[in-house]
Design goal:
The complex is a heterotrimer of chains A (about 150), B (about 325) and C (about 120). Chain A has about 150 residues and is mostly helical. Chain A has eight helices and no strands. With about 325 residues, chain B is of the alpha/beta class. The chains are: A mainly alpha (about 150), B alpha/beta (about 325), C mainly alpha (about 120).
C-alpha cells in the first residue's frame, strides 16, 4: 500500500467534492457543433468543386472561408457563445484556431500595433504553428532518410 | 495588544467611519444590486481600456467614501489599496490624482483584509487620524491578466468563479462611525498542492480554515461568538471544503458561514458557476452589504476574512501549485 | 452522403477530444498543439490522407487535418527538392490557412473592440 501525502489526500478530496459537468451532455454538444462546422466546410467544398476548382485549391479556399467566418463571429462576440455551448466542437475545427488568433488580436490592440497585436496575435496560434512545423520537419526527415535506400 | 500567535486585539477599537461600494453592470443585476453607491452600464467604466476602467472604479470609490464622510483628501493620512493587475496599475493610476500618501498592497483577492488590517493598525498605533482602506477588481482586466482574451471561446468548469467588477473603500478613524474593528488575525500562506487555477475555492479553503482556526484559538472563542463568519471568494466548492476542514479540527461553522462570492451573484440566473471572485468581490460586498447589516445591528459581531489565491501566469506556467492566504478582521457594531 | 460523413466524422473527432478535455483538464492551447502533431504523425503513417479522401471535411476541417497538410507539404517538397524540401514544404502547404488567419485577424482588430462577457 502506498502512503499518501497530505497533498495527495487533499487533491483527491477536492476532486470528490468538485461538481463535474455532465460529460455525456458535453460530448453530445461537441459532436453537434463540430459536426455542423465540418458539414459547413463540406458544403463550401462541394460548391467550389462544382465550379470546377481542383482538389488543392478547393481545400485552401474552404479553410479560408471557414477562417473568415470564425473571424467575423469572433468580432461580433458570437464565437465565445458557440464555444461555451460546443466546447471541443468549436475548438477542434480550423475555426477554433482562427478564433484564437483573432481573439488575441482584438484584445491586445489596446497595447499597441506592434507589441500588442503584433506580438500577442501568436499567443495561442504560435505554439500550434511552431509544433506543427517541428513535428512535420522531423517526420519529413525520417521520410527523407527512408527515401535514400 | 498582541494576542496568541497571529492576532491583535485593539485596546481602543478603530472605527469604520464610512464606506462606499461601486460595481459593474452584472453585479448591479445581482442580488446586492440596489445596495451599491454607484453602478456602471459601460463595461469600460468610462475609460478606454479594461485597466483604465478598473482605475476609475478605485477613483470613484475613494471619491464617494470621502464625500459620504464629508472629508477632503487633505484629511486622509494614508491610503492602503491594491488590485489584481501586474504592478498594481489600477491602484496607481486610479488614486494618484488625490495626492494622498499610499501603500500599494498585493494579497491577491485577500487585499481588502490586508488593507483593513494595516489601516486599523496604523490608526490604532496613532500614526494617522484617518486612512482609506480599499481594493478593486475588474472582470475584463483580470481575464486578460490571468486567463484568456475575452473573445476567446472556452468552457468554464463548474468550479470556476467570475471576477467581480467593483471596488470597495472605507475610511478608518478614531471617532464613532458605522462599525468598529476590534481585532485582526493575519493569515499565513497555506499550500495544499492544488494546481487547478480553475478551482480557486479549493486552493484557498485551507488558508481560510487555518486563519479561522487561529482566530478562534488566539481569542479563545467558539464560532458562536460571531454572528457571521464571512469569507471572501471561496464559492460553493470552497465553502464545502472549508466547513469540512474546520470540522476535522473540531469546529462547526456551517451555521455562521457566509461567502461574499456566493452572495454577490445569483449563480442560477447569472451563470457564474461557483460564485464571484477578485479583490472587488469581498471589498464591495463588505462595504455595501456586510457593513449595512452591522450598522443596523442585524449582526453584532462578524469575522470577515477575504481570501486570496497566490498565483501568476508565470508561476502557473512553471508548474507551481496555487497557495492561498486569508486575513481575518473582527468587525463589531457601534 | 458527403454531408452525412462530414457531420458524423467531424462530430466524432470533436466528441473524442471533448472527453479528453473533460478528463484531463488540459488547457485548450495544449489540445490544439496535440491535435496538429497527431495529424502530422497520422499523415506520416499514411493513414490520414486516405481518411480525408473518404471523410472529406469531416477529417480535413479539424486541426489534425492541418497537421496532415503540413506533413504532406513536407513530403511533396522532399520528393521534389530533397533535403531543402524539409524547410520549404510545411509553410508552403499551410500558407493559405496561416496567412488567412493572420490577415483576417489583423483586419478584425482594426474593426472590433474587446467586448465584455455576460
Amino acid at each position: 500500500m502506498t502512503v499518501k501525502t497530505k497533498e495527495e489526500k487533499y487533491n483527491a478530496y477536492v476532486k470528490q467534492v468538485t461538481p463535474t459537468t455532465n460529460m455525456w451532455l458535453n460530448i453530445c454538444k461537441a459532436f453537434l457543433v463540430g459536426g455542423i462546422i465540418c458539414t459547413l466546410g463540406q458544403l463550401i467544398t462541394n460548391w467550389l468543386k462544382s465550379g470546377g476548382l481542383n482538389q488543392e485549391d478547393t481545400a485552401a479556399w474552404t479553410s479560408l472561408a471557414l477562417i473568415l467566418l470564425s473571424v467575423i463571429l469572433t468580432g461580433l462576440n458570437l464565437y465565445p457563445k458557440i464555444a461555451k455551448f460546443g466546447g471541443a466542437g468549436s475548438l477542434v475545427p480550423i475555426t477554433g484556431f482562427a478564433n484564437s488568433v483573432v481573439a488575441a488580436a482584438i484584445e491586445f490592440k489596446k497595447e499597441g500595433w506592434v507589441f500588442g497585436v503584433g506580438a500577442k496575435i501568436f499567443t495561442i496560434a504560435g505554439p500550434v504553428i511552431l509544433y506543427g512545423i517541428i513535428s512535420s520537419w522531423f517526420l519529413g526527415l525520417i521520410y527523407w532518410i527512408t527515401q535514400l535506400f | 495588544m498582541i494576542v496568541g500567535k497571529q492576532s491583535i486585539q485593539f485596546e481602543q477599537a478603530v472605527h469604520i467611519i464610512n464606506a462606499a461600494g461601486v460595481a459593474g453592470k452584472k453585479e448591479a443585476e445581482g442580488p446586492l444590486g440596489n445596495l451599491f453607491d454607484k453602478t456602471y452600464e459601460d463595461p469600460y467604466i468610462n475609460g478606454q481600456t479594461w485597466e483604465e476602467g478598473e482605475a476609475n472604479l478605485q477613483k470613484d470609490a475613494a471619491a464617494i467614501v470621502m464625500e459620504k464622510a464629508k472629508m477632503t483628501p487633505e484629511q486622509i493620512r494614508y491610503i492602503f489599496s491594491g488590485d489584481l493587475l501586474n504592478q498594481l496599475i489600477a491602484t496607481s493610476f486610479g488614486l494618484m490624482d488625490y495626492n494622498i500618501p499610499i501603500f500599494g498592497l498585493y494579497g491577491a483577492c485577500s487585499t481588502m483584509g490586508e488593507a483593513l488590517s494595516l489601516g486599523a493598525m496604523t490608526v490604532a498605533g496613532g500614526y494617522a487620524e484617518h486612512v482609506i482602506a480599499m481594493a478593486s477588481s475588474h472582470f475584463g482586466s483580470a481575464e486578460k491578466t490571468f486567463r484568456f482574451p475575452l473573445e476567446y471561446g472556452n468552457q468554464r468548469p463548474f468550479s470556476a468563479t467570475w471576477t467581480v467588477t467593483g471596488s470597495g473603500a472605507v475610511i478608518l478613524g478614531k471617532e464613532k462611525g458605522i462599525a468598529r474593528i476590534t481585532g485582526i488575525t493575519t493569515g499565513k500562506i497555506v499550500d495544499y498542492g492544488v494546481k487547478d487555477s480553475m478551482n480557486m475555492g479549493a486552493c484557498m479553503a485551507p488558508a481560510a480554515a487555518d486563519a479561522i482556526y487561529q482566530n478562534l484559538m488566539d481569542f479563545d472563542v467558539s464560532p458562536e461568538a460571531y454572528d457571521r463568519i464571512i469569507t471572501g471568494d471561496l464559492g460553493y466548492v470552497g465553502q464545502t471544503i472549508l466547513i469540512e476542514l474546520l470540522k476535522d479540527k473540531g469546529f462547526d461553522i456551517s451555521k455562521q458561514h457566509m461567502d461574499c462570492g456566493i452572495e454577490i451573484f445569483d449563480s442560477e440566473r447569472q451563470d457564474t458557476h461557483a460564485g464571484g471572485s477578485g479583490c472587488g468581490c469581498s471589498a464591495v460586498t463588505f462595504c455595501s452589504y456586510i457593513l449595512k447589516q452591522i450598522e443596523k445591528k442585524a449582526w453584532k459581531k462578524v469575522l470577515f476574512l477575504p481570501t486570496g489565491a497566490l498565483l501568476s501566469t508565470i508561476s502557473f506556467n512553471e508548474g507551481k501549485s496555487v497557495p492561498g492566504v486569508a486575513h481575518c478582521v473582527i468587525v463589531e457594531c457601534e | 452522403m458527403d454531408y452525412v460523413k462530414a457531420f458524423l466524422i467531424g462530430g466524432l473527432i470533436c466528441a473524442v477530444v471533448q472527453i479528453f478535455m473533460d478528463r484531463t483538464k488540459l488547457m485548450p492551447g495544449r489540445i490544439m498543439v496535440g491535435l496538429v502533431c497527431l495529424g502530422a504523425i497520422l499523415g506520416f503513417a499514411g493513414v490520414y490522407q486516405p481518411f480525408i479522401d473518404w471523410a472529406g471535411c469531416g477529417a480535413s476541417v479539424p486541426l489534425a487535418g492541418f497537421g496532415n497538410t503540413l506533413y504532406q507539404g513536407v513530403k511533396e517538397a522532399v520528393d521534389s527538392d530533397g533535403l531543402l524540401g524539409l524547410f520549404r514544404g510545411g509553410f508552403e502547404a499551410s500558407a493559405a490557412g496561416i496567412s488567412g488567419a493572420l490577415l483576417f485577424g489583423y483586419a478584425a482588430s482594426l474593426i472590433f473592440d474587446p467586448k465584455m462577457k455576460n
